[in-house]
Amino acid sequence: MKIARFDEGRIGVVIGDEVVDVTDVVGIDTDEWPVVGPNRLIRDFASHRDAIEDALHSAPRHRLGEVTLRTPVPWASKVIAYPVNYHDHGREMQAGYRADIQGFFLKPSSSLSGAGEPVELPVVPGREVHHESELAIVIGKRCHNITREEWEEYVFGYACLLDMVVRGREERVFRKAFDTFCPVGPWITTADEVGDPTQLDMALWVRHADGTEELRQHTNTGNLVLDIPGMVQMAAAVMTLEPGDIIATGTPAGVGPVVDGDTIRITIERVGEMSVSVVQGASGQTEVFATPYTTDIAKQELVPADQQVAIEEGAK
Ligand code: MN
Predict the structure, then answer these.
(1) Distance, CA 237 to ligand 1 centroid (Å)?
(2) What are the boundaries of each domain within the chain?
(3) For residue 223, which of 28, 59, 63, 212 sits 20 to 30 Å off, Cα-Cα?
């Protein structure tokens, strides 16, 4: 099942190019603050499932193109992110560590945004803001200290995630914490529908204002350094994981800058496809980024031109 959040926090099930509004069926109050209805829905999903399926025939429907997709879990108690979890990204960043020996960092839930909301670039003169294409794991049940073999029991579903970052050498979290720097979506695809997540193709394109589009990133989750069971287990070894917590699983090589007018498109096999526009905002100005910084990421041709055509075809 594909669980979307849209407009003023309504909950929908995506079927084809339509979204069926099940907000009332699952008892979501769109005026609630803090916005933890989605966390509760994930926790209690098994008990709502029959009512949701019954409602699919009678509940109001909207065309996906006529709603604004929001982030599925806006008040995730934490967004856990594994840095340098693909070897080729480690090489391009010239990083001397990998996620399996480094652990994770956190992004604030206030950085979460949805497929229908643009990434807003902060005012960081002379800096590059980069995309990182990542598979998101959404936690379904509270857990702490689990075994590697138990991981699947605690996963609710998966989504596409963009871990946006101002490149530099300042605190990682500072550079990754801006509002809209963690688009997640376009919805959560439940784990039963995705099946085995350990061999999923993932790709990211950037379309520029002139209409040209370039493939920037392409990998398979089979290339992860610390794999999906390992990431869930490691996070739960440190912290109590809660329903709705999100794990950003790391990005492959090919990270690069986006500018005002670009559109970032990410596809993950059996999970979904999300396009997010990029606009220049007026906020985010601090003295931290006053000094210009030149990125020294080693550029390399990662996806040969002939393979790019095949990937384009596969994504349609
Ligand atoms: Mn990342």
Answers:
(1) 20
(2) 1-67, 71-282+300-315
(3) 212
**pLDDT tens-place string over residues 135-174:** 999 999 999 999 999 999 999 999 999 999 999 888 999 9
> Measured in angstroms, how far is the CA atom of residue 61 from the centroid of ligand 1?
35
C-alpha 10/C-alpha 69 separation (Å) is 10
How far apart are the CA of 251 and the centre of ligand 1, in A? 5
Residue with tokens 């099940």: 22
Overall fold of domain 71-282+300-315: Fumarylacetoacetate hydrolase; domain 2 (3.90.850)
Instruction: Give me 78's structure tokens.
Output: 């934490």
Entry pTM = 0.93
Phi, psi at 129, each rounded to 5°: -100, 120
Q: Are 264 and 214 in contact (CB under 8 A)?
A: no
Q: Cα(163) to centroid of ligand 1, in Å?
A: 5
How many Å lie between the centroid of ligand 1 and the Cα of residue 51? 37
| Pairwise CA distance, residues 220 & 271, whole Å | 13
Residue 304 Cα, ligand 1 centroid: separation in angstroms?
Answer: 24
Give the distance (Å) from ligand 1 centre to CA of residue 242.
21
In whole angstroms, what is the distance from residue 198 CA to residue 4 CA?
Answer: 23
Supply 252's token pair.
Answer: 């492959």
* Residue pLDDT, tens place only, 10-66: 999 999 999 999 999 999 999 999 999 999 999 999 999 999 999 999 999 999 999
Using alpha carbons, list the distances in angstroms from residue 76 to 135, 177, 244, 272: 16, 14, 5, 20
26 Cα: distance to centroid of ligand 1 (angstroms):
33
